[in-house]
Structure formats: C-alpha cells, structure tokens
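Batch manifest, entry 17 of 40.
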Amino acid sequence: MFGYIVINKPEMKIKDFQRYGKYYCGLCHSMREQYGICEQTSLNYDATFACVLLTALYTPKTYKGKKLCVVHPLSKKEFLKNDIIDYIADMNIVLAYYKCLDDWKDDKNIAKLGYSSVIRKSVKKIRKKYPKKIKFIREHLQNFYEYESKNILDIDKMSGAFGEVMGEILAYREDEWEKELRRLGFYLGKFIYILDAYDDIDEDIKKNRFNPLVKQYDSDNFDEYVKKLLMMSAAELAKSFERLPIIDEVAILRNIIYSGIWSRYEAVKAERSKDE
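Output type: structure tokens
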C-alpha cells in the first residue's frame, strides 16, 4: 500500500479524528505485537482505511486499549483491537514485502532488499494463515510485474492489475458482501496506482523507470487527463461504498472517500507544479 487514502483533517470533526486515530494506533500495535518493530514501520493510511471500512461493515467484537509507544512516549494513547485489524496488519506486511522486492528490481535499492529480507520470516507466517489469499496476491502481482517488464503502457490494464490485488484484500469473507467489496477494492486499487504513477512521473522519466503515464506526459492536458482517470475510479468506489449496509464510522469513511483522497491528489499536484 502507498499511503494515498487519507483523511481531510480540517473537514473532520474532532471526535471522528480521534476515533480514526484509534484505528491507526490499533493497526500499529497489531503489527508490533504479532511480528516486531521492523514490520511495524510499514504502517500506512491505506491500511487504516481498510480497517475502518471492514470493521464498520462486519462490526466484530472490538476491544479498547491504552499504551505508551515510541511515537507517544509521555502519555498513553487509546487504540482499538479486533480480528479485522489483525488481518489488515497481515495484508499490509505482505504488500510491503512485495513492494520492496519490486523496488529492488527497478532501482537495485539495497535498503529495500534488506528490509524485505528482515520481514520475510513474518511473510512466511502470514502465508500459512492465508495460503489461498496470499497465492492470489502473489500471482496477480507477478502478472503486474510482467506487464512492467514488457513495458505495457496501458494505464487501465496496469491499474486494474493492482485493483485485483486490493479487491482480494478487501474480500474479507466469502459472503453476500464479497462481490461489492471486491469491486470497491478494485477501484480503490486503480485510484492508488494512478495517483502513485502521477506522483512519480517526473522522477521516473529522469531515472528512465517504467511509468504507464509517460505516453501522455508531454500532452497539454496531462494533468486534466490524470484527474479524469482518478475521478472515474473514485466515482465507482464511492458507488460500491454507498451500496454497503454501513452505519458505524460513516462520517470518517465519507471524509476519506469524498474529500481525503482528493486533498492528497491536490498535494501531489501542487508539489509537481512547484518542481516544474
């Protein structure tokens, strides 16, 4: 996961921001307690969104805790704990592992290779817990990397490949909500991939790295083209969200889906404009 699915804090009520923070801290504690400090560092906001979404939908038995941590060493912070948070912690570590391997292939980034080696043992444990799911993720990411190696500059195909992976992660159970969650995850993954490609385009061109947006980069309407792609994915994921019978955490989730992801897009766009 890449950390693009964020809240728009200025537009969020204080109580909702505090509640969101408890999910974030819960995910952080889950990774630390299940695996260790190294795995904990892969924490990001995309995974937090998944925790809030699936917890709101399935309403599992959720416990509250309060602990000191490295980030908050002076005062204990409240956090949430449930089976879904533990599950998303596992999926986050798996994606971080494969992302590091991909970065090693692309850039020969020794730090990323080292990190993947450190968390490999944890990934093996997770694979035993979810063999079918991890097999699906690994195979679809392999397809994704093959597209890259063949220099397939089809943004719809590339983003769709990552969308399949995110759909598998959000499909927490084989039940009546599986199809809608897969659809939501698919468009969420497309949005993440497109925004990441947009964020990286200048550096990728400079370093001669693969980026499926390179075809459109020199066009006069490049920024508008990317925004339209993002809008199409965002609209579809919002449709899927609204079809789910979610009552809890609706304010948090709508803040992210309708506002937070766009505040992140605007930040990326502003940063790119500054560099031009």
